[in-house]
Amino acid sequence: MLRMLLPLLTLILALTAYLCWHLWRITPLGWPLKLTVVALFLLWMTSMFVSFFTIDRLPVNAGVVLYEVGNTWLIAFLYLLIIFLLADVASLCHLLPKTLLKDSAVGLLSVVGILTLILTLGGIHYHHKYREELTLTTTKPLQQPLTIVLASDLHIGYHNRKAELARWVDLINAEQPDLVLIGGDIIDRSLRPVLEGNYAEEFHRLQAPVFAVLGNHEYFSDLREATRFFEEAGIRLLKDSVAHFKGVDIIGRNDRMARRRAPLSDLASDTHGFRLLLDHQPYQLEEAEQAAIDFQFSGHTHRGQIWPISWVTDALYEKSWGHHQRGNTRYYISSGLGIWGPKIRIGTRSEYLVLHLQTQQ
Fold this sequence. Notes:
Strand content: 15-25%
Number of helices: 12
Structural class: alpha/beta
Largest sheet: 6 strands, mixed
Distance between the termini: 57 Å
Radius of gyration: 23 Å
CATH superfamily of the largest domain: Metallo-dependent phosphatases
CATH topology of the largest domain: Purple Acid Phosphatase, chain A, domain 2
Shape: elongated
Helix content: 40-55%
CATH architecture of the largest domain: 4-Layer Sandwich
Strand order of the largest sheet: 1-12-2-3-4-5
Number of strands: 12
CATH class of the largest domain: Alpha Beta
């Protein structure tokens, strides 16, 4: 494990040194201001690591602030890196005066302004929730036409707080769904703010039965406590099991973090209705096709949350976001209703899916 982390840590330190050198160089008015700017950047970086290791030992409100501030550094780090790399290339190509990168108030204010604008617009964009709609017809008998709301990756906790969860519940209830399905990662990284804030009562406001599967973050937190929370919240958890609802067979797979998972073919073998699969991580999509699944819903990828990380997830997965089809099996890979880390989306979106399911006439 250490051998794997050492190259990554070395790269992060090298890139941090590159950014600190640029910040020192571009800051005007001598070494006191230069030292202040670099120190503030390193303090911002340190807050992320302090948050990771100490957040559950702090008062919840202090943990919320530390989580928001510390994790936002990740985005700032990435975009500062992009800004300075582009500036260096432009300077080498004589497209940008070198004087803007050395002892320049205009240069420093330009960098800070661009970064502030990116973070601000990304935060506004995250808080807008997109409604994706899909209508499917089936030859399999349903007791009635169904409206199903599907969401994944809520990541409730220190940053997606109870008031935000309440807003999502209102969005879902406005669809007047017959059924609500959640595709994993309901919990972010800690159950402490969820339990202390009694988030369970918000789930009780959902005006339809709720089924969910585990995500990797339920394993990162406390699986036993997470399972107990789902029971308290009135959420029926499907762990390699099947539930039946008005002609729909809801197949819920355990997450890939589990030591063992039942083969999908076994779970689907005794189902005869419309086969709807919940599987948090969208790996091995061919399994659903081979098991004659009608529709699979997954999340997990967030589609990278920000550009250009979305390019990475697009390369890693057969489908990292959106509608997909293999044979007769339809898929929707969600970028998530909530988010992990900083509440910023750039080039991706927060969303939920409204599925209308009806019998073919």
